[in-house]
């Protein structure tokens, strides 16, 4: 693959530039590009929420109308129609296991956008349930490529001290996309007298995001760490130089290249630097199996905590289970999306201060208690206790707050952080596929669960969140302020079959400074040479 981004030299210093940008301006541009991808992700998730109860939408797709027909059959068809999108996303994400490292980050993002454009056009033109299902599968394929690649690209281009902040910005843009979709749904609710435009335009509006990304993607640099994996150190040095606003010959840039070279050398020693399922599923000194489990389960827990109960079915819950009028529910759903977005802004300012672990625990404990109180409120509402429906509606806002401050962003940040360069793309692909797979499961069973056990559904999610608390506490090490190569060191020092030790090692291992980084990385390289010679006893005690 040839370098597609033009590189010029600034007049004042020998620093490569992209679109005339370098340093913080280029980092901001990359964050913005990736942010559009997350904005698209959020919008596409949220847009169906209020449309499901819109009369013109229900008239076009009577097979998924659960307002007039609340039987199990219609609930199941609605779950399939909404959730089949996640099956497409899962398939698209898994494809990056094999395609991501072969074609690079930019090609994957470009391909995902093109597929999403096709899917959005087909969704807008849908005339029946079968047509809509096929269109949503196609959109899902494209979004799967995007969600498996964009966080990876962002992490590989970010500085260690700002990586968390950058990914939290992206997480907040997911909620901003959801917020936009709710308000557009609300605005077009008043156009229902004009027919199907009230739901076709909100679906078509998502085309703005992938079209803008397609127009700009080739002006951006490829991931420098992917370039190193393709044995292109000179190109990688140019990208790093532009990102850090330094000359490619600057000692700091040379040190970055050397750190990655040492990491790649270590990977070659323990099984080659090309992806294979064998390398992904084995422990060894790289602890790949340990790391892919941390990545995958973070995404699984994000989905099974109950957030999509609210994101996809907020309108249905407000109308069918809390008893609100159509206009009221749309106002409340839009306000819910707005509050969700505002809550997601908070971790941008605290992620690099409090770290990942504390936010994981804070959010999960809050979600656990909120689900319990939701059950109590709905139980009281069933008994016609005054104020109970309002209390339940408020608690939906509270749950969004806890989730938006924690799992929303963290589970997109964590997988590329904890995975090694050798398997970073497939690890992110697997974790993203887990996200979409369990997303589908939750979206599929939610209408069925409410139809069968009603508000007792909240108790299930209470139990799930309760079980998540010790998992985050005992098994998830802190990565705040660490370079991706430092994270490699943490897992290299973790005993093979004692994964809980990684938490202590991450908390006590000194941060690497420029003057001692070389010796530590050489020590890391040496540890792999010991493994190659069969001396791994020190790592398994």
TrEMBL record:
It is a multi-pass membrane protein. PROSITE patterns: MFS (PS50850), SUGAR_TRANSPORT_2 (PS00217). One of its GO terms (molecular function) is carbohydrate:proton symporter activity. The chain crosses the membrane at residues 26-43, 106-125, 131-155, 167-191, 197-218, 359-378, 390-414, 426-450, 456-476. Its main location: membrane. InterPro entries: MFS_dom, MFS_sugar_transport-like, MFS_Sugar_Transporters, MFS_trans_sf, Sugar/inositol_transpt, Sugar_transporter_CS. Keywords: Membrane, Transmembrane, Transmembrane helix, Transport. Residues 30-480 form the Major facilitator superfamily (MFS) profile domain. It is found in: Membrane. GO terms for cellular component: membrane. Belongs to the major facilitator superfamily. Sugar transporter (TC 2.A.1.1) family. NCBIfam families: SP (TIGR00879). This is Major facilitator superfamily (MFS) profile domain-containing protein. It comes from Candidozyma auris. The lineage of its organism: Eukaryota, Fungi, Dikarya, Ascomycota, Saccharomycotina.
